[in-house]
Amino acid sequence: MKLYKARLTPTSQFITRLKGDTLFGQVCWSIVHSCGEDRLETLLSTYSTRPFLVVSDAFATGYLPKPTMPSKYLSEKSEDKKINRKKIWLTMSELHSGAYAQARDNAAADAIDVKHSEIHNAINYKTFTTDSDNFAPFSVETLSLQKKDVYFLLDESQLSLEEFTAVLALLQLSGYGKKSSVGMGRFELSDLEKVSLTSSSKAFMTLSPSRLEGLETEYCFYDTFVRFGKHGGNRAFKNAFKTPILLADSGAVVQFKTSQQHQYLGQAIHNVSSVHKDTVHQGYSIVLPIKELS
Question: Does the pTM exceed 0.90?
């Protein structure tokens, strides 16, 4: 599999945070719309043992997240806990060398995403007005995002780079996440840039939410993340809600007893829908080798 990086430039506001497992789902819908449902079914038929694609979260440009580990492994002082909690970005070379004390906050990484609250109200579509008897305005939080880096681990023997580029082009036009049908979540992607990494190490860090069950590890550190997923497209009309999934959040650290080679870790997740039994969730994550823990 080959690792690619793309620069994501937002062209509208977002409501849904850019997480790898959701991005993977949006890519699957773009495959259906550009290549047909049979093509996606073929790609997913071997997904449990041989994923055709693994997608990362979106990160500050030029940076990656700080590993989720106890302070003693990050060379942090316990009395600076509040300050260190905001320092979340490291370069790839700093991760490799273990220079975790060099972590920087959103301002230093030029990665400040601005939150907005927009006031909405329900419309009575019989009268096309707000009902005076049921006037209940509510707020919707939107995000103005800075440019981001997104990583794609692609098996070109299953999905060619040409096909994948066409799929991403459609994804940019379709939008991402909640309210994409009314213009939210629009973005542009730069050309894919190939990334060369050594895949051999004892210690690895994940780049998206993942299911790490069944690994025989020496150390494993992570924060939990619960995915409350929903179906999209024509699968959203009957019980759109999926079963909640408990995952290890991005930045999880896994160390094995011996040096190993991994481009990704995790597993495919099935049985997440009571209606659509063939639904598959990305429980894989791209992993980066980091300095071994001692």
Answer: yes
